[in-house]
Amino acid sequence: MEDVKNLEELQNKDLQSKLDEIVQSNSHWASLAKNKTLNIGIVDMSDPMNARFAAINPNNMVYAASLPKIAVLLASQEAMEHGQFAETAEVKADMRLMIAKSNNAAATRMINRVGLKQIGQTMQDPRYNLYDVENGGGLWVGKAYGGSNGRIGDPIKNLSHAASVMQVCKYYYKLAFGQLVTRERSKEMLDVLVDPELHHKFVSVLDRVAPNAKVYRKSGTWETWHTDSALVWDQDRKYIVVALAEDAGGETMLRELMLKIDTALVSKG
Asked: How far apart are the C-alpha atoms of 22 and 173, rounded to whole Å?
């Protein structure tokens, strides 16, 4: 897959105009975007080898609640690939619980298996570059989701659980092309991410407008922080969408954004 382009090279003016129009259609959304408390990324993969990327505040790293558990998933697969621990039935169950139900105890068990230091190293691995010090940071897990087994804040903002839409979009983009760890490990990660068991935010909309689509997803919620991310795939939909918001009405906002983004991506006009 040497011909797969880097996501950073795929920024598209037409898609950016569509995204800007969506955000500007609501004065509250526009205000949040201006204040960098609303961050959105979309990747149109209807032509996978010529994907198109657009974003609002792409490199603005923020607290992202449970969404960065996808970093734990990648670091776990990397560790298992190198024989650090065995892929037992218990480990498989914990990975699924961590992602599909966002179970904090399962996430903590996975973090303890891998280690916080190694999770950070995996995110900064040049193969992935999912935490980029030169471009605002990105995906970071520096603390367990419960209990106190130490803390490693991210190098830029000292956040424990962080993400930027650029790096989350890149994660799903690489995953779609089998470029995380190995093709086989990427497939395993997709199997863990598919069929989310929490039907809120993006998924509540996709359940209605695309009930047969494959949805690979991880979200997060804590107080006023509302985050969601998904790779959506069916005959009419091949796209990645990520939103990181800090707003009391974030749940409703993410549903409304999802509907508008889906409509814009499905209608090719």
From this structure: 23
Cα 122 versus chain centre, distance: 16
**Span 7-266: which CATH code?**
3.40.710.10
CA torsion through residues 122, 127, 130, 132, sign: positive
The 3-state secondary structure of 25-90, one letter per residue: CCHHHHHHHHCCCEEEEEEECCCHHHCEEEEECCCCCEECCCCCHHHHHHHHHHHHHCCCCCCCHH
Task: Report pLDDT digits (tens) over 39-52.
Answer: 999 999 999 999 99
Instruction: Report the candidate in 187, 238, 178, 241 with the shortest Cα–Cα distance to residue 213.
Output: 238
Distance CA 244, CA 140 (A): 14
In angstroms, the CA 139 to CA 121 distance is 11
Token pair 């558990």 is found at 69
Q: What is the pLDDT of residues 150-174, one digit of tens each?
A: 999 999 999 999 999 999 999 999 9
Instruction: Please state the separation of Cα 261 from the chain's center in Å.
Output: 16
For the chain, the domains span 7-266
Q: What gap in Å lies between CA 93 and CA 89, rounded to an integer?
A: 6
Confidence of residue 268 (pLDDT cuts 50, 70, 90): low
Query: Contact at 8 Å (CB) between 135 and 41?
Result: no
Task: Name every residue whose Cβ is closer than 8 Å to that of residue 4 and which is 6 or more positions away in sequence.
Answer: 49, 177, 179
Question: How many C-beta atoms lie closer than 10 Å to residue 244's C-beta?
Answer: 32
